[in-house]
Amino acid sequence: MAHKVFVAGITGVIGSALAPLLLDAGYTVFGSTRRADRARELEDAGVVPVVVDVFDAAALREALVRIAPACVIHQLTDLPPGLDPARMAQAVTANARIRDEGTRNLVAAAIAAGSSKMIAQSIAWAYRPRATPYDESSPLDIDAQGARGTSVRGVAALERHVLEAASLNGTVLRYGQIYGPGTGADAPAGSSPLHVEAAAFAALLALQRNSAGVYNVAQDAAEVTNAKARRELGWSPDSRSAARV
Hints:
Rossmann fold; two-stranded parallel sheet; about 40% helix; globular; NAD(P)-bd_dom_sf; transmembrane; NAD(P)-dependent_oxidoreduct; transmembrane helix
């Protein structure tokens, strides 16, 4: 069990960059997808495919109990390719559902499976406006209106599920705005940019360091400070990996 890792959302942009890092580090990697036609692609990359929908709580629990991973890594999102503006209004609601209901199901399944750790993807631009840079103790903007409010409250729910699960050592990585291969953005953009491969490397370090708590993960001179991730994870924005699923 100690070397088994289950990655929910392994075919997403960060999950795809994370898989080869985990494999190279010697972990047995199980990866979830909702699409059966992605199974062969995962197998070819060295990942054990698990075809399951995070909203099917019973099937998810059964899969994780069978696998019994030591750690569950949550990289699930429901966002359109390239963050297509024409589809983002609907995506905000769908993504908030994954962060709340999906995370709740994933935490329950991990506990049933006897997992000891969960690492989850969050975002670094959900802070309540105030003087910058924001650190991890800064409050989230949960009273925001409209789409931002929906998104931030989804983030708050995700973090609560992960960090308050008594039997799990929970880690939340608040990622900046992702760019790089597969993201639809070739160059840094936004208030706290982050290369996708540096994001993946942070998840690997969180696993290896057996960290707990919340970490901002973004480039230097961003709207958020990455000092805690540098200090406790040994992470750097310059971290990169070469292979992808």
